[in-house]
Amino acid sequence: MTAAQLTLVQIDNYGPWTVTPEPRREMDLQTLQSRLFADMAQYIGNRGGYVFFTRFDNMVAVTNGLDRRDHELLQESVGNRYPVTVSLGVGVDEVPIEALETATERVQAAGSAQSSDRSEVLAGEFHGGDAADDVHIAHFDVNDATGKYTDRLNEFDSFINIEQGYASLMKYMREEHGALSFFVGGDNVIAACPDLSHDEYMGAIDHVAADADVQLKVGVGSGATPHEAGFAAKHALEDCRYEGTLVEFA
Amino acid sequence: MTAAQLTLVQIDNYGPWTVTPEPRREMDLQTLQSRLFADMAQYIGNRGGYVFFTRFDNMVAVTNGLDRRDHELLQESVGNRYPVTVSLGVGVDEVPIEALETATERVQAAGSAQSSDRSEVLAGEFHGGDAADDVHIAHFDVNDATGKYTDRLNEFDSFINIEQGYASLMKYMREEHGALSFFVGGDNVIAACPDLSHDEYMGAIDHVAADADVQLKVGVGSGATPHEAGFAAKHALEDCRYEGTLVEFA
Amino acid sequence: MTAAQLTLVQIDNYGPWTVTPEPRREMDLQTLQSRLFADMAQYIGNRGGYVFFTRFDNMVAVTNGLDRRDHELLQESVGNRYPVTVSLGVGVDEVPIEALETATERVQAAGSAQSSDRSEVLAGEFHGGDAADDVHIAHFDVNDATGKYTDRLNEFDSFINIEQGYASLMKYMREEHGALSFFVGGDNVIAACPDLSHDEYMGAIDHVAADADVQLKVGVGSGATPHEAGFAAKHALEDCRYEGTLVEFA
Amino acid sequence: MTAAQLTLVQIDNYGPWTVTPEPRREMDLQTLQSRLFADMAQYIGNRGGYVFFTRFDNMVAVTNGLDRRDHELLQESVGNRYPVTVSLGVGVDEVPIEALETATERVQAAGSAQSSDRSEVLAGEFHGGDAADDVHIAHFDVNDATGKYTDRLNEFDSFINIEQGYASLMKYMREEHGALSFFVGGDNVIAACPDLSHDEYMGAIDHVAADADVQLKVGVGSGATPHEAGFAAKHALEDCRYEGTLVEFA
Questions:
Q1: What would the pLDDT profile of C160-180 be if each residue is shown by its tens digit?
Q2: CB nearest C160 (choices: D171, D185, D235)
Q3: Using an 8 Å Cβ cutoff, are D117 and D111 in contact?
């Protein structure tokens, strides 16, 4: 049974900081945000977790395998190396959106995202176990995106297609299943899901094909950590490629 | 009159590389992509340009102020420091989408994005001048996103709202005006535009409010470079904030 | 009793790579080297270890607390994100130089540092335990370096003084005690040591004062990991500052 | 005739920051320092300059080709992305040490390196021209360092040999010629020099062989920028390798 541990990473008081004393150079902000995300990806990733850039000032991570001490150290290290600090909220639930709801509430309870009084909150509960099906990861991509889009359209029109497909999928998966889907570059979307069936994944693919005219396929894996589940999902997606199928489970 | 210089940055043969000899750790790929983007942001940004992460394996930059030599050096430096290389296509036009169309075609003409034979293409024309209205940048954000979303909803539901607003805006601006709109984190979208009127920007804001139920406002600036135009746009957006208006020109 | 686990990190075939097909831009090489070191510092550091840049193409780490799996993952992650790979040799001994001797031999046994056939060696034994005095760290700095050098001399002459002091200390500590001393920036030197007495540290300080005319002081700590030992050493060095003493143990 | 433009980069009030409110994790400091240096290397390097890490809290750059605006932007960008700021002093002279002397005095005149009142000083004069022999760069390395040291000794003993050779060379070149020599990793030392003869370089090599028992060779180049001069020097050093000579001019 799924027990996803979700962490909300929120930069403290970031909006006001970006325009104080006057607006900062946009490319410096972009650099800061993407490097902070890269550091998160290394730290969380080499402990078996997954983190997604989401809105960059708010990032969402699946952190099964990381305990309180791991979160404290991440917070300390960011504080030592960046001009901003981060607050962290953690929640655990069978359904990812419920875990994130709890994680977010814990940070919100400590103050506004734009409060100068709130800094380096760390609040939450941590999942003790590591059962082999704690985490379910689905890795979607677009069928022949290179042939249909990248090599034929201008890059922005390729991007619009991918983006509309993503916008459709993220909404459907959240509303129908409480799953969290994240665009991770190229034509790839990775979703933290509850335990879903073949037909439920087919339903999502059909929905996006009808709603946004984008043909997806998906590999699904489970594991004790996001990396294990996601790695199995990648292999399952390779199976789709070779078999010509739309849904494969590891 | 607008003369936007657009550069397509495309990682060569990236898709196959990510799964050879077997799928690579997702968080390493995320780190690689976001750091490559950060390096682009620094290099292009401190020469007055703007770059957007788009799909990460394909990035779009507005590069007025960067000549052929600047592009060559960027390509060489990436090749020296990353396990991947990049191809660059450049185009110039009054309408951003036309410039990008040209830029993309030049890279596509040299081979597929997934061809192992194509590497480090550099093709295109460069804009010689630097007239004060060469570049138009519009900086959108969401009215009171912190109060309405970040401090009230869980982070994924906040993100869905921002994302649906973005998906609506990007499509409208491209189809109506040939403008290129990019989500840049938080509740911010930056668009490279042709010369548009107050009413045309109001039309976009109205469209997104009706289509996605997201209330945007926008500051608009122009300049010889994206940084100049974008910096003016940021100040205009601050004016919106203080005046309570929805569209301001620098 | 000290049981230091030392890891040699050696970039595979780096020398030839830097000049193939022709010499690469020096500042790109500097960027690559220092970012690789920074990644090592984060990875090893947030697991309680210490790494020193040494010659950059060869780095030395004290890795008590990191097991074989941690080393494998570090190697994999570098290979996924850099145009070069690293070999790792590990040794354990009461005396740091002996541990490093073993670590180095294991890498050397697999082939030359400039062999194109050798790649991603991982060889060594790992220290199972974590006794509270496994690691001894000494943190040296120069008495009033800012007043005597930085604020008075040109930067290169300040640097010469610090550097001559370091060259003297590193040689003395290695020859007398088998300790490994590393310059870590500013006026700071951190040494991995066997269990040494107050008089032995005074002997080192006296030697450098006489040999290079540089006045050092030192804080010493011990712990199960380099971070614990080094953090205690930093506090002991603060004690020297407040007490006006030259040697303090945590 | 040489006209070297030297820039001192000094982190403002860094020493106190590293221990406030208590000592910060050493590996976070190492990460911060080496990434700041890497950013300098990219920024200065892709404008044709060279920067050396020196003591990390103080870095020395040869910046022919970078004007006041380039320096201002570097300072702004660091301030936007790091928890520390930098002061910059600039000087121009035929003899590198004289240029650095001037550069350093300008920063010192504005306050102590450990003053909390001094921040983001930018002081100096900039070299207007770009004559083809403005900058002289010498690139030294150790003859067969891999065969003699890296593949035979433990890494620390290899490092001691290289380091003692460097300590000897840096002192000799500064005292005899006002040249600034920097260890850049591996067995490489790069020096910013006045216009020196073949015999003067032979004199330096002989001195180090006698003083530290390390056998160096050197390639020398000149150019309008450090990159041009240094690139020529690298090629000249390759000539030494093929010809078996000890001193080659480009």
A1: 999 999 999 999 999 999 999
A2: D171
A3: yes
The b-or-e profile of D56-83 (16+ CB within 10 A means b, else e) is bbbbbbbbbbbeeebbebbbbbbbbbbe
Confidence of residue B131 (pLDDT cuts 50, 70, 90): confident
Distance CA C12, CA C117 (A): 9
Question: DSSP alpha helices (H): ranges in C82-218?
Answer: 96-108, 145, 155-177, 198-212
Q: Using alpha carbons, select from A158, A139, A136 the residue that is nearest to residue A205.
A: A139
> What is the C-alpha to C-alpha distance for residues C105 and C89, in angstroms, rounded to an integer?
8
Q: Are residues C176 and C148 in the same domain?
A: yes
Phi/psi at D127 (5° precision) = -80, 120
Residues D142 and D119 in one domain: no
Among the partner-chain residues C60, C101, C114, the one whose CB lies closest to the CB of D146 is C114
Which of A:6-45 have CB within 8 Å of C? 39, 42-43
Residue B211 domain-assigned (yes or no): yes
CA distance A34 to B37: 7
CATH of the domain at B197: 3.30.70.270
Question: Number of structural domains, chain B?
Answer: 2
Distance of alpha carbon D93 from alpha carbon D127, whole angstroms: 9
Going by C-beta distance under 8 Å and a sequence separation of 6 or more, which residues neighbour residue C247?
A: C198, C201, C202, C205, C217, C218, C220, C240
Q: For residue D104, what are the contacts with CB-CB under 8 A and spacing of at least 6?
A: C153, C154, C155, D8, D89, D91
- Which residues on B lie below 8 Å from A154 (Cβ)? 97, 100-101, 103-105
CA angle (D3, D6, D10) in 5-degree steps: 170
- Is A102 in a helix, a strand, or coil? helix
> Where is the domain boundary, D104, D124, D144?
D124
Instruction: Render pLDDT for D107-128 as a digit per residue (tens, 0 to 9).
Output: 999 999 999 999 999 999 999 8
For tokens 């020493």, name the residue: D15
C130 lies in some domain: no
The C-alpha angle D173, D177, D180, rounded to 5 degrees, equals 50
Host H or E run for residue A226: helix A226-243
Residue B81 lies in a domain: yes
Please write the tens of the pLDDT for every residue from A183-192: 999 999 999 9
- The answer to whether D217 and D234 have CB atoms below 8 angstroms apart is no
Q: What is the DSSP letter of A57?
A: S
What is the ipTM for the molecules in this complex?
0.97
Given a contact cutoff of 8 angstroms between Cβ atoms, the answer to whether B173 and B181 are in contact is yes
For residue D37, the chain A residues in CB contact (below 8 A) are none
Query: Are residues A147 and A99 part of one domain?
Result: no
How many Å lie between the alpha carbon of D85 and the closest alpha carbon of chain A? 10
User: Is C170 within 8 Å of C88 (Cβ atoms)?
Assistant: no
- State the residue range of the domain holding B161: 135-249
Instruction: Say if the Cβ atoms of A82 and D82 lie within 8 Å.
Output: yes
> Could you report the per-residue pLDDT of B68-114, keeping only the tens digit for each?
999 999 999 999 999 999 999 999 999 999 999 999 999 999 999 99
| Residues of B with Cβ-Cβ distance to C25 under 8 angstroms | 76-77, 80
Chain A: give the shortest CA distance to residue D35, in Å: 10
Q: Which residues, at least 6 apart from B211, have a Cβ–Cβ distance to it below 8 Å?
A: B168, B172
Q: Which of D103, D124, D145 is the last residue of a domain?
A: D124
What the block records as the tokens of C85 is 């790979």
Query: Is D129 contained in some domain?
Result: no
Per-residue pLDDT, averaged over C222-246, amounts to 97
Give the bridge partners for D118, in sequence order: none
CA–centroid distance for D127 within its chain: 18
What is the rounded distance in angstroms from the CA atom of residue D104 to the CA atom of residue A128?
A: 56
> Domain of C52: which CATH number?
3.30.70.1230
Q: How far apart are CA D122 and CA D72, in angstroms?
A: 7
**Is B90 found in the same domain as B202?**
no
Are residues D140 and D245 both part of a single domain? yes
